[in-house]
Design goal:
- The two termini are 25 Å apart.
- With 365 residues, this protein is of the alpha+beta class.
- The chain folds into 2 domains: 190 residues, no CATH class; 168 residues, no CATH class.
- α5 runs antiparallel to α6, α6 packs across α9 and α8 packs across α9.
- Strands 2-3-4-1-5-6 form a 6-stranded antiparallel sheet.
- β3 and β4 form a beta hairpin.
Length: 365
Protein backbone atom coordinates (compact mmCIF):
# COMPACT_ATOMS: atom_id res chain seq x y z
CA UNK A 1 0.00 0.00 0.00
CA UNK A 2 1.36 3.41 -0.98
CA UNK A 3 1.65 6.03 1.76
CA UNK A 4 -0.32 9.27 1.53
CA UNK A 5 1.92 11.94 -0.03
CA UNK A 6 -0.23 14.99 0.71
CA UNK A 7 0.92 17.88 2.88
CA UNK A 8 0.32 17.47 6.61
CA UNK A 9 -2.04 20.45 6.82
CA UNK A 10 -4.21 18.94 4.07
CA UNK A 11 -4.52 15.69 6.04
CA UNK A 12 -5.36 17.65 9.21
CA UNK A 13 -7.97 19.68 7.31
CA UNK A 14 -9.65 16.50 6.08
CA UNK A 15 -9.62 15.06 9.60
CA UNK A 16 -11.50 18.14 10.85
CA UNK A 17 -14.13 17.89 8.16
CA UNK A 18 -14.65 14.17 8.82
CA UNK A 19 -14.91 14.63 12.61
CA UNK A 20 -16.80 17.92 12.87
CA UNK A 21 -18.71 17.00 16.05
CA UNK A 22 -16.07 14.94 17.85
CA UNK A 23 -13.73 16.07 20.62
CA UNK A 24 -10.85 18.21 19.54
CA UNK A 25 -8.15 20.57 20.80
CA UNK A 26 -6.60 23.75 19.48
CA UNK A 27 -3.04 25.00 19.19
CA UNK A 28 -2.39 28.73 18.81
CA UNK A 29 0.66 30.16 17.10
CA UNK A 30 1.97 33.70 17.28
CA UNK A 31 3.38 34.70 13.91
CA UNK A 32 4.97 37.99 12.89
CA UNK A 33 5.58 39.94 9.72
CA UNK A 34 6.78 43.39 8.69
CA UNK A 35 3.53 44.57 7.13
CA UNK A 36 0.00 45.06 8.42
CA UNK A 37 -2.38 42.45 6.98
CA UNK A 38 -5.99 43.24 7.94
CA UNK A 39 -8.99 40.91 7.97
CA UNK A 40 -9.75 37.51 9.47
CA UNK A 41 -9.02 34.18 7.81
CA UNK A 42 -11.59 31.47 8.51
CA UNK A 43 -10.81 28.32 6.57
CA UNK A 44 -13.43 25.70 7.31
CA UNK A 45 -13.42 24.64 10.94
CA UNK A 46 -9.69 23.96 10.72
CA UNK A 47 -7.80 27.25 10.48
CA UNK A 48 -8.29 30.79 11.77
CA UNK A 49 -5.95 33.76 11.62
CA UNK A 50 -6.42 37.28 12.99
CA UNK A 51 -4.51 40.35 14.23
CA UNK A 52 -3.14 39.93 17.75
CA UNK A 53 -1.89 43.50 18.22
CA UNK A 54 -2.48 46.52 15.98
CA UNK A 55 0.83 48.03 17.09
CA UNK A 56 4.28 46.72 16.22
CA UNK A 57 6.02 44.61 18.84
CA UNK A 58 9.49 45.22 20.27
CA UNK A 59 11.02 43.65 17.14
CA UNK A 60 9.22 46.12 14.90
CA UNK A 61 6.85 43.44 13.58
CA UNK A 62 3.08 42.99 13.49
CA UNK A 63 1.78 39.96 15.38
CA UNK A 64 -1.03 37.61 14.37
CA UNK A 65 -2.60 34.56 15.96
CA UNK A 66 -3.04 31.39 13.91
CA UNK A 67 -5.37 28.84 15.52
CA UNK A 68 -5.40 25.26 14.20
CA UNK A 69 -7.93 22.65 15.22
CA UNK A 70 -6.85 19.04 15.78
CA UNK A 71 -9.44 16.27 16.33
CA UNK A 72 -8.68 14.03 19.31
CA UNK A 73 -8.27 10.71 17.58
CA UNK A 74 -6.16 7.68 18.23
CA UNK A 75 -3.18 7.43 15.93
CA UNK A 76 -2.92 3.90 14.56
CA UNK A 77 0.69 3.14 13.70
CA UNK A 78 1.31 1.14 10.56
CA UNK A 79 4.66 0.70 8.86
CA UNK A 80 2.78 0.68 5.56
CA UNK A 81 2.25 4.43 5.99
CA UNK A 82 6.01 5.03 5.69
CA UNK A 83 8.44 4.70 2.81
CA UNK A 84 11.85 5.99 1.83
CA UNK A 85 10.15 8.35 -0.58
CA UNK A 86 7.35 9.23 1.82
CA UNK A 87 6.29 12.81 2.46
CA UNK A 88 8.39 14.78 4.96
CA UNK A 89 8.60 18.42 6.00
CA UNK A 90 10.87 19.53 8.79
CA UNK A 91 8.72 22.33 10.29
CA UNK A 92 5.37 20.59 10.71
CA UNK A 93 1.91 21.93 9.86
CA UNK A 94 2.53 25.50 11.01
CA UNK A 95 5.76 25.53 8.99
CA UNK A 96 3.86 24.43 5.90
CA UNK A 97 1.27 27.16 6.36
CA UNK A 98 3.86 29.89 7.00
CA UNK A 99 5.72 28.88 3.84
CA UNK A 100 2.45 29.02 1.88
CA UNK A 101 1.51 32.40 3.38
CA UNK A 102 4.98 33.78 2.55
CA UNK A 103 4.64 32.64 -1.04
CA UNK A 104 1.07 33.85 -1.46
CA UNK A 105 1.54 37.29 0.14
CA UNK A 106 5.19 37.69 -1.02
CA UNK A 107 5.96 38.63 2.56
CA UNK A 108 8.23 37.31 5.31
CA UNK A 109 6.66 35.44 8.21
CA UNK A 110 8.30 34.43 11.47
CA UNK A 111 7.05 31.99 14.11
CA UNK A 112 7.26 33.67 17.50
CA UNK A 113 5.48 31.28 19.89
CA UNK A 114 3.38 28.13 20.22
CA UNK A 115 0.56 28.10 22.78
CA UNK A 116 -1.12 24.81 23.65
CA UNK A 117 -3.19 23.19 26.40
CA UNK A 118 -6.21 24.36 28.39
CA UNK A 119 -6.64 25.91 31.80
CA UNK A 120 -8.27 23.13 33.83
CA UNK A 121 -7.72 20.77 36.75
CA UNK A 122 -5.99 18.25 34.49
CA UNK A 123 -4.26 20.53 32.00
CA UNK A 124 -2.33 23.77 31.81
CA UNK A 125 -1.74 26.46 29.21
CA UNK A 126 1.84 26.38 27.91
CA UNK A 127 3.65 28.96 25.80
CA UNK A 128 6.89 28.10 23.98
CA UNK A 129 8.76 31.07 22.52
CA UNK A 130 11.18 31.07 19.60
CA UNK A 131 14.07 33.36 18.82
CA UNK A 132 13.28 35.52 15.81
CA UNK A 133 15.96 35.62 13.14
CA UNK A 134 14.77 39.08 12.22
CA UNK A 135 17.29 41.66 11.16
CA UNK A 136 15.08 44.69 11.79
CA UNK A 137 15.07 46.21 8.33
CA UNK A 138 13.55 49.67 8.55
CA UNK A 139 10.34 50.27 6.64
CA UNK A 140 11.87 53.01 4.48
CA UNK A 141 14.94 50.90 3.60
CA UNK A 142 12.79 47.84 2.95
CA UNK A 143 10.61 49.69 0.44
CA UNK A 144 13.71 50.79 -1.47
CA UNK A 145 14.88 47.17 -1.71
CA UNK A 146 11.52 45.59 -2.55
CA UNK A 147 8.58 47.96 -2.45
CA UNK A 148 5.98 45.19 -2.88
CA UNK A 149 7.33 43.02 -0.08
CA UNK A 150 7.47 45.83 2.47
CA UNK A 151 4.22 47.58 1.52
CA UNK A 152 0.59 46.75 2.21
CA UNK A 153 -2.00 46.76 -0.55
CA UNK A 154 -5.61 45.64 -0.93
CA UNK A 155 -4.61 42.13 -2.03
CA UNK A 156 -2.82 41.52 1.27
CA UNK A 157 -5.84 40.71 3.41
CA UNK A 158 -6.56 37.56 5.42
CA UNK A 159 -10.20 37.77 4.38
CA UNK A 160 -9.40 37.89 0.67
CA UNK A 161 -11.26 35.06 -1.07
CA UNK A 162 -8.24 34.54 -3.34
CA UNK A 163 -6.29 33.22 -0.34
CA UNK A 164 -8.96 30.62 0.40
CA UNK A 165 -9.05 29.73 -3.29
CA UNK A 166 -5.27 29.28 -3.26
CA UNK A 167 -5.53 26.91 -0.28
CA UNK A 168 -8.36 25.05 -2.03
CA UNK A 169 -6.23 24.72 -5.15
CA UNK A 170 -3.33 23.23 -3.23
CA UNK A 171 -5.65 20.62 -1.69
CA UNK A 172 -6.90 19.67 -5.16
CA UNK A 173 -3.43 19.17 -6.65
CA UNK A 174 -2.37 15.57 -7.22
CA UNK A 175 -0.46 14.36 -4.17
CA UNK A 176 2.55 13.43 -6.31
CA UNK A 177 3.35 17.18 -6.47
CA UNK A 178 2.90 17.98 -2.77
CA UNK A 179 6.45 17.20 -1.66
CA UNK A 180 8.11 19.29 -4.36
CA UNK A 181 5.61 22.13 -3.89
CA UNK A 182 6.17 22.50 -0.16
CA UNK A 183 9.93 22.40 -0.67
CA UNK A 184 9.55 25.15 -3.25
CA UNK A 185 7.43 27.28 -0.90
CA UNK A 186 9.91 26.68 1.91
CA UNK A 187 12.98 27.75 -0.06
CA UNK A 188 11.11 30.78 -1.37
CA UNK A 189 10.20 31.80 2.19
CA UNK A 190 13.80 31.27 3.32
CA UNK A 191 15.15 33.25 0.36
CA UNK A 192 13.08 36.37 1.00
CA UNK A 193 14.29 36.42 4.61
CA UNK A 194 17.72 37.20 3.13
CA UNK A 195 16.47 40.34 1.34
CA UNK A 196 18.39 43.28 2.79
CA UNK A 197 20.54 40.82 4.77
CA UNK A 198 22.62 38.54 2.53
CA UNK A 199 21.78 38.77 -1.14
CA UNK A 200 24.17 36.01 -2.14
CA UNK A 201 22.24 33.58 0.04
CA UNK A 202 19.03 35.02 -1.40
CA UNK A 203 20.01 33.93 -4.91
CA UNK A 204 21.13 30.48 -3.72
CA UNK A 205 17.86 29.80 -1.89
CA UNK A 206 15.62 31.32 -4.56
CA UNK A 207 17.19 29.11 -7.23
CA UNK A 208 16.49 26.14 -4.92
CA UNK A 209 12.81 27.13 -4.81
CA UNK A 210 12.68 26.59 -8.57
CA UNK A 211 14.88 23.49 -8.56
CA UNK A 212 12.50 21.82 -6.12
CA UNK A 213 9.93 21.70 -8.94
CA UNK A 214 12.23 20.49 -11.70
CA UNK A 215 11.57 16.80 -11.11
CA UNK A 216 8.20 17.45 -12.77
CA UNK A 217 7.87 17.67 -16.54
CA UNK A 218 10.06 16.57 -19.40
CA UNK A 219 13.54 17.80 -20.21
CA UNK A 220 14.43 18.36 -23.86
CA UNK A 221 17.72 16.54 -24.43
CA UNK A 222 20.17 18.41 -26.65
CA UNK A 223 22.71 16.80 -28.98
CA UNK A 224 25.50 16.73 -26.36
CA UNK A 225 23.22 14.96 -23.87
CA UNK A 226 22.24 12.36 -26.47
CA UNK A 227 25.85 11.76 -27.55
CA UNK A 228 27.12 11.24 -24.00
CA UNK A 229 24.11 9.07 -23.16
CA UNK A 230 24.82 6.85 -26.17
CA UNK A 231 28.49 6.68 -25.22
CA UNK A 232 27.65 5.74 -21.62
CA UNK A 233 25.57 2.79 -22.83
CA UNK A 234 28.61 1.15 -24.42
CA UNK A 235 30.62 -1.55 -22.66
CA UNK A 236 33.79 0.55 -22.39
CA UNK A 237 32.71 1.95 -19.01
CA UNK A 238 32.51 0.30 -15.60
CA UNK A 239 29.22 0.56 -13.70
CA UNK A 240 30.48 3.28 -11.33
CA UNK A 241 31.89 5.22 -14.30
CA UNK A 242 28.50 5.08 -16.02
CA UNK A 243 26.87 6.36 -12.84
CA UNK A 244 29.26 9.32 -12.79
CA UNK A 245 28.39 10.17 -16.39
CA UNK A 246 24.67 9.99 -15.69
CA UNK A 247 25.08 12.12 -12.56
CA UNK A 248 26.93 14.74 -14.61
CA UNK A 249 24.17 14.68 -17.22
CA UNK A 250 21.51 15.05 -14.51
CA UNK A 251 23.29 18.05 -12.99
CA UNK A 252 23.67 19.63 -16.41
CA UNK A 253 20.00 18.96 -17.13
CA UNK A 254 18.94 20.74 -13.92
CA UNK A 255 20.70 23.89 -15.14
CA UNK A 256 18.80 23.73 -18.42
CA UNK A 257 15.50 22.84 -16.73
CA UNK A 258 15.87 25.88 -14.47
CA UNK A 259 16.08 28.21 -17.46
CA UNK A 260 13.34 26.39 -19.37
CA UNK A 261 11.01 26.56 -16.36
CA UNK A 262 11.33 30.35 -15.91
CA UNK A 263 11.08 31.06 -19.63
CA UNK A 264 8.00 28.85 -20.00
CA UNK A 265 6.03 30.08 -17.00
CA UNK A 266 7.05 33.76 -17.04
CA UNK A 267 4.93 34.46 -20.12
CA UNK A 268 3.02 37.66 -19.37
CA UNK A 269 5.50 38.89 -16.76
CA UNK A 270 7.25 41.42 -18.97
CA UNK A 271 5.42 44.65 -19.74
CA UNK A 272 5.95 46.81 -22.79
CA UNK A 273 6.16 50.57 -23.09
CA UNK A 274 8.92 53.13 -22.75
CA UNK A 275 10.46 54.02 -19.41
CA UNK A 276 13.13 56.33 -18.15
CA UNK A 277 16.55 54.68 -17.70
CA UNK A 278 15.69 51.83 -20.08
CA UNK A 279 19.14 50.28 -19.50
CA UNK A 280 18.14 49.63 -15.86
CA UNK A 281 15.26 47.34 -16.85
CA UNK A 282 15.50 43.75 -18.06
CA UNK A 283 13.71 43.11 -21.34
CA UNK A 284 12.13 39.85 -22.41
CA UNK A 285 14.88 39.13 -24.92
CA UNK A 286 17.47 39.45 -22.13
CA UNK A 287 15.82 36.86 -19.87
CA UNK A 288 18.02 33.95 -20.96
CA UNK A 289 21.17 36.03 -20.41
CA UNK A 290 20.26 36.92 -16.82
CA UNK A 291 19.10 33.39 -15.95
CA UNK A 292 22.46 32.06 -17.13
CA UNK A 293 24.25 34.67 -15.01
CA UNK A 294 22.24 33.76 -11.91
CA UNK A 295 22.77 30.02 -12.22
CA UNK A 296 26.46 30.40 -13.07
CA UNK A 297 27.07 32.81 -10.16
CA UNK A 298 25.26 30.49 -7.77
CA UNK A 299 27.34 27.47 -8.91
CA UNK A 300 30.64 29.35 -8.69
CA UNK A 301 29.75 30.61 -5.21
CA UNK A 302 28.90 27.12 -3.95
CA UNK A 303 31.64 25.14 -5.67
CA UNK A 304 34.51 27.62 -6.01
CA UNK A 305 33.77 30.21 -3.32
CA UNK A 306 33.66 33.05 -5.86
CA UNK A 307 31.61 36.04 -4.61
CA UNK A 308 28.66 37.20 -6.69
CA UNK A 309 28.63 40.54 -8.48
CA UNK A 310 25.39 42.01 -7.15
CA UNK A 311 23.32 44.97 -8.27
CA UNK A 312 23.15 47.76 -5.72
CA UNK A 313 19.90 48.94 -4.13
CA UNK A 314 20.30 52.67 -4.58
CA UNK A 315 18.98 54.96 -1.86
CA UNK A 316 16.61 56.91 -4.08
CA UNK A 317 12.84 56.61 -4.61
CA UNK A 318 13.29 57.05 -8.37
CA UNK A 319 15.27 53.81 -8.56
CA UNK A 320 13.04 51.45 -6.57
CA UNK A 321 11.55 49.87 -9.69
CA UNK A 322 14.85 49.27 -11.46
CA UNK A 323 15.67 45.65 -12.30
CA UNK A 324 19.43 46.17 -12.35
CA UNK A 325 21.78 48.98 -11.37
CA UNK A 326 23.51 50.96 -14.17
CA UNK A 327 27.13 50.12 -13.33
CA UNK A 328 29.18 48.43 -16.07
CA UNK A 329 31.73 46.60 -13.94
CA UNK A 330 33.99 46.96 -10.92
CA UNK A 331 37.68 47.11 -10.08
CA UNK A 332 38.44 45.90 -6.56
CA UNK A 333 41.98 45.32 -5.22
CA UNK A 334 43.68 44.01 -8.40
CA UNK A 335 40.58 42.31 -9.78
CA UNK A 336 38.58 43.62 -12.73
CA UNK A 337 34.98 42.34 -12.63
CA UNK A 338 33.18 42.15 -15.96
CA UNK A 339 29.83 43.94 -16.06
CA UNK A 340 28.46 40.96 -18.00
CA UNK A 341 28.48 38.91 -14.79
CA UNK A 342 26.36 41.37 -12.79
CA UNK A 343 23.16 39.92 -11.29
CA UNK A 344 19.78 41.67 -11.24
CA UNK A 345 18.30 43.16 -8.09
CA UNK A 346 16.68 40.72 -5.68
CA UNK A 347 13.30 42.40 -6.27
CA UNK A 348 13.32 41.38 -9.96
CA UNK A 349 14.29 37.77 -9.33
CA UNK A 350 11.84 37.35 -6.43
CA UNK A 351 8.97 38.66 -8.52
CA UNK A 352 9.65 36.59 -11.65
CA UNK A 353 10.13 33.39 -9.62
CA UNK A 354 6.91 33.96 -7.67
CA UNK A 355 5.02 34.74 -10.89
CA UNK A 356 6.41 31.65 -12.67
CA UNK A 357 5.66 29.22 -9.84
CA UNK A 358 2.09 30.50 -9.55
CA UNK A 359 1.67 29.99 -13.30
CA UNK A 360 3.09 26.48 -12.95
CA UNK A 361 0.64 25.68 -10.15
CA UNK A 362 -2.24 26.72 -12.41
CA UNK A 363 -1.23 23.96 -14.86
CA UNK A 364 -1.57 21.21 -12.24
CA UNK A 365 -5.39 21.07 -12.26
Amino acid sequence: MKSDQRMQWVLAFDDCQADNHGKSHYIDYEICTEIRIPGVLEYGNFLHCVFYDFDKNEDGLYTYIVRIKFPNKQQDFSENNYSRKGYYFINGIIGELLAIFSFYFQTRFYLRATISGDISEVDTRMRSSYKLNNHKISESFGKLINKEMFSSDSSKNWANENLKTFLDDIRKIDQKYHQSLIRSFYWYSEAIKEVGVNHQLFFIKMVSSVEALLTSGNYRKDNLHKKIENLANKDIFLKNEKNELYNWLNNRAINKRFKQFIKKYSVGFFKGGKRKAEHCYIRKNELDTYLKRIYSARSKYLHEGIPMYLSMDLNDKSTICWDVDPTQGQMIDRNKIDGKTKLPRTRWFERIVNYSIKKFINTLF
